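Encode chain A's predicted structure.
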Amino acid sequence: MATQTTAVRGRVTFPQVAIALQTLALFFQAVTAGMLLSSSLGHALHDAGSKVMYGASMLYVLAAILAWRPGGGSPRPILYASGFLVLASAQVVLGIAHMPSLHVPLGILMFGLSVLALGRVLSTRLPERTGTRL
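Encoded structure for chain A:
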């Protein structure tokens, strides 16, 4: 018999932490990309940040799988996380190939998608109240 569990309001879940880390890593990448233009330290930071961002994308896939399987949740977040990992892989390849005309717009797209995904996992619907109105 399978039971479905739901997150307790106010508690932080593993998928929430994973997507927040991914979003933060992408923001760090945007900052260090700007530093590439003005500082020699920017390259080293951007390179290190790319590894963290890729690891965070893999962590997001793992979190989505772990939230789905034992918790009885929807498998849809696994598709989102896997798609994001594909985008991250393309981003790494484009960065190594020094193709900023594709690398930069893809980075912006990834940051936007990550912020949307973070908003989705952080938003919780409050149960509708029936009865009296204030």
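The mean pLDDT is 85.
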